[in-house]
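User: For my dataset I need records formatted as: sequence, then structure tokens, nothing else. Please produce one.
Assistant:
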Amino acid sequence: MRRVEHVMGFPVSLRVDDEGIGQEVADALFAWLREVDARFSPFRPDSEVSRYDRGELELADLSADLTEILGLCERYRAATGGAFDVRLPGRPLDPCAVVKGWSVQRAAELLTAAGARRFVLNAGGDVVVSGGPWRVGIRHPEHADRLCTVLELTDGAVATSARYERGDHILDGRTGTPATGLLSVSVVSASLTEADATATAAFALGPKGVDWAASRPGCEVFAVDTGRRVRRTAGFPVVREDAAAA
């Protein structure tokens, strides 16, 4: 079973190789992602995030899901000394860097609960896999038609933060200015919640973020810095690595 929809501002593709997993499972998965967009998007004035940011909701009034998301945001803010921060002066509350990975990981768990054992869920280049091995390509940070590495995963997730899709959209919360020093950073972890937030936080930290991400339990890292040098941890599951500066 295969399906692609545009949700939360990016394409989401689903492939399930198990027999007996029907379109109703995909319907529930995409309905969940649309619900997340409606509830937690900072770009929707009626979302729970926007209402909380405007002071229309107290902390005690928030859903358990948003309370969990804000707790994760605070955890990464503290862990990076403020480089990762969803509350920047003069800007609305924007927890998207946590919401994306968290919600897609939840979607993968819906698949597992429905009996799926072999699947790939790709949300705008951030990927959760089960029942592999699966091969996942990481885009070259400067050439859209090239890969800089290919990795192999059996069960787990990989997320990449970079400039190539949205420009300087990742800010260093300590300065409020665009993060510098890295062209891209990819993180492999058991959960896309961890992989996605860690990749974004590492990018916000700049060159020091590679070692910071590598120190996180269960995380493996592949990064390209602005000098076109590749840095990766020994456990990153590379199948093929191309020259990042080529």
